[in-house]
Sequence to fold (421 residues):
Amino acid sequence: MKSNAKPILVIGGGIAGMTAAVEAAEVGYDVILVEKEAYLGGRVVQMNRYFPKMCPPSCGFEINVRRIRQNPRITVYTLSDVEEISGQAGDFKAVLRVKPKYLTGKYPVDVSVVEKLTGERNNDFNYGMDRTKGLYFPHDMAYPHGYVIDRETLSDTDAGVLQGSMPDDAIDWEMTDEKIKVKIGAVIIAAGWKPFDATKLDTLGYGQYQNVVTNVMMERMASNNGPTGGEITRPSDGRKAMNVAFVQCAGSRDENHLPYCSAVCCMASLKQARYLRDKNENSKTTVFYIDIRTIGRLEKFYYDMLDDANISFVKGKVAAISENPDSKNLILDVEDTITRENNHPEFELVVLATGMAPNSINIKFPSELLLNDYGFIEGATNIEGIYSAGCSKHPCDVSSTTKDATAAALKAIQCLIGGEE
Ligand SMILES: Cc1cc2nc3c(=O)[nH]c(=O)nc-3n(C[C@H](O)[C@H](O)[C@H](O)COP(=O)(O)OP(=O)(O)OC[C@H]3O[C@@H](n4cnc5c(N)ncnc54)[C@H](O)[C@@H]3O)c2cc1C
Fold:
């Protein structure tokens, strides 16, 4: 343990960033954890259940939050990002940008005031499937556990209503972006992934037909704290979805879109087929796939499902989706590559299994940060002292992400020790 080591800067507070932060801090290193959203947890807290054990995201998340809260070595900045990093391994300087929160935190927010507001915004936590007011609680498990103001959504009238229902010093409208300069020894980039934009898939009807949704939307629909209260329903009419198709590799392994396999989409669809069977007992599911990729111990999850008479697997890539305008059902154009038949089955709901695209980070580094052909950042980057972890590095599941983040923490520590005078 180096006594005078500078802190490790972790960019991104998803499961990778949280893990790297607690692992480094628990061996005695100071960590600055910077998250652009108002809460930690990243995409994992938007899931309904985790494969393979099907536990809720609260399981691992709450433990990590406790470890962060209890550890004075970790400083968390939410609604923040990093503008610039300069210097060299062991002796970097970074400029953080902390966005204004407006709420001073001196008083609790009275929930009744939210109802009085009129302006609304798309709820990005639920992938735009519902809306919130300009003062909102991001989600049940949010850490930091508090309301957030979206200033752009609040009209002057709404701002006045808010101000009038709270003590004078509860809100500070004068707050602006704060720039914080920090000295750091090493950097871990854990900025994660974003869902591939399904509107780019011209023939699959996303954005055109209401009952074509994506796999991340399905996670929110299945969640009790999601936009449908945990019911898996058709967006067009709110009826329970009883006959559902999963379209695998929607945009993935396709040179026009994501040329790579995202490694988790097969397991995600199998998991979601289970949600359907649990929630709508008599529902029927068909999975259209190129190959089912369930590696290692995950294979059992797939094999167990082959015994379910209500879940079918068809080897074939879906070429196009059209809509029956009366029923709003979807008609697939798909060749069964085993029987060589061209089929046009009809479904009440279609889930596009879209892949994971890298999150871009807009930071000025000491030299250009090199990305691989797919836009991800290699684990040991081309800049000494800067490492990447989790889905910043490649698409992967939570188990691989946490191991990877622990390895990145170790690399960062080795860099600090190596820099000892
Ligand atoms: C449909 C679907 C279902 C899945 N289900 C499962 C499952 O059941 N089990 C499983 O093991 N895995 C599952 N996964 C994979 C899982 O989501 C990933 O393994 C996990 O999200 C990786 O975590 P991460 O921290 O690397 O990235 P993320 O979860 O993306 O977290 C990255 C964090 O960095 C923040 N960030 C981004 N840019 C910046 C910036 N510039 N500055 C500051 N902060 C920034 C983001 O806001 C976010 O909080 C699923 C994936 C998909 C697509």
The two ends are 13 Å apart (CA to CA).
